[in-house]
Amino acid sequence: MTEFKNTEHELRKFRLRITAAVAFVLICFGLLGARFIWLQVVRHDAYAAQAEDNRISLVPVVPNRGLIMDRNGVILARNYSAYTLEITRSKIKGDLESVIDDLAQIVNITPKDRRRFKKMLEDSKSFASLPIRTRLSDEEVARFTAQRYRFPGIDVQARLFRQYPLGEVAAHVIGYIGRINQKDADRIDDSEDAANYKGTSYIGKDGLEKSYEQQLHGNTGYEEIEIAASGRAVRSMSHVSATPGNNLILSIDIELQKVAEEAFGDRRGALVAIEPSTGDVLAYVSQPSFDPNLFVEGIDQQSWDELNNSPDHPLINRPMSGTYAPGSTYKPFMALAALELGKRTTSFAINDIGYFMLGGHQFRDDKVGGHGRVDMYKSIVESCDTYYYMLANDLGPDTIHDFMKPFGFGQLTGIDLEHEQRGILPSTDWKRKYYKRVAAQKWVGGDTISLGIGQGFNAFTPLQMAHAVATLVNDGVVMKPHLVKIIEDGATRTRTQTVPKESYRIPLKQENIDFIKKAMVGVTHEGTGRAIFAGAGYESGGKTGTAQVLGIKQGEKYDKRHNNTRLADNAWYTAFAPADKPRIAIAVIVENGGFGAAAAAPIVRKALDFYMLGKRPGDSGKAASPAPAAAPVSEEDDAVPAQRENQTRATESTEDAYKPGEETPGNRE
């Protein structure tokens, strides 16, 4: 039987399919049209700007870092242009060490370069290029350029480099810059100055380079570069110049700095010299020093280990980070306190029999048999301990604290470097807070007696000592010590003084100040500094000091043979010159130097000879040479030094109070 198709039904199905297909096509074209309208009409401006951004690239122009100069214009930190060979790790295919080995066949790459690069690679989490070699010669640049195609991800860049032409001289003052690490980058990103560091690879890490980073850095410029589709720069569209960083003109006299550093030789210690009337720091010595150039491109591990593990700790900024008992250099301030507070007159005298008794405890003077009749002048000139044992007992710890505080003892001076230590100016309240054990919090009589001779809990920085002497000889007018004297605008060359006026004044009687200065002048004529300053050619005042480092047990003699070891006493000398109108105040400490007159005073003599007379060590004709410093110089120095107990630093434990019947020796000059 024949089956006939339903033609009408088939036509309807066909028409339905055609309608669905047309509807689908129309919907697709509708969507495409809508998207086209969205992109070309609604979002036209945004995408047009984005397209323009893809065509125009903004390249940051890093500013020249400001210069650092001494007060006479000698360059201490400068910039120079050189080529550097840089590796972008993310673009290196294959083993990095093999690539560096191949690279070393073309450009000299030392093991030190490899170690430094490895350390920078470990410290850096960015995709920026890192230098494998710096300061390439023209010949090396030419050799690499000819083989450039072999090393994708490696290129030669022209960079500005920081250099410290004097090397170790004043390194703790100047500091250094280094490559920005991840910690620095995070800090910059969180700051308001983040945009100004686009393209910057280096930042101040230490010293003035760090504390004046914003002044030295300058303002970043930019250049608009037209980029081809291949990513190649076609032409420069516009240019906004970078503003160079400001220049720092320091208060430091770099020639005085050199003389002072050389005077230390291979000994450890610190020297700070201040101009009393301005607060200008004329010299700032921390010995031993280091070469800041090692840090600019990232110090290699071997060099870092040598510095960091050295028993001499060359990286410590001793003038403001080292805290020491001041020894007898504290006595002139104790005497001034006695005069100002009415506890003593200049003519008041004691009979020193060689010791002072308190509660059955004997505090011995350094001179066996004592100094005899001692008034205030003689107490300073001959550095009589017994006089100051009695004075400290009469004043009391809190009175001493309150008088000394305005001079800056145990206070931050505010010098323009970071990480200054406060030190310790003890009081009964301080001891209660310092010790955890209740029994140790009690202030005992022996604590007070030790303060009088600059021992016990006293712990001050050499900077504080120099600042205090400067304030004293400036008649109580306090000038903030500073290292940067003038900031010079990098663009306009206009200059701004950093410390234009005094901080405050300590109300002191002029006759009392004059007496203390007169007694300190007497030290150089008839006291513990007379041999060193004989024939100086100028009048100066000074005070020797010797501060114990290691406690000596009862019955054990202090042995001079321990000098120049790490167990010997610290040697101090403070000074000012000229005597009538002081233009310089100095504090020097020689760690484990022994006697202040033998170790510290000769350093001061050399510094003052240069500053006052222009005389360098070894010169003749301008001033008499300092007398040999082989032996102490006052009659007390001939005595057998007595033993002292735990009177060194406030950081040492003194939880065991003095016991009746024990002896406590005095200072040795």
CATH topological fold name of the largest domain? Beta-lactamase
Through-space gap between termini: 141 Å
Q: Point out poorly predicted stretches.
A: 552-556, 621-665
**E-strand count:** 24
The averaged pLDDT comes out at 84
Class based on secondary structure composition and strand pairing: alpha+beta
Approximate helicity band: 25-40%
Shape: elongated
Q: What's the story with the biggest beta sheet?
A: 7 strands, mixed
Architecture (CATH level 2) name of the largest domain: 3-Layer(aba) Sandwich
Number of spatially distinct domains? 3
Question: Count of DSSP helices?
Answer: 23
What's the alpha carbon Rg, rounded to whole Å?
36 Å
Q: Oligomerization state of this entry?
A: single chain
Name the beta content range: 15-25%
Quick one: CATH superfamily of the largest domain? DD-peptidase/beta-lactamase superfamily
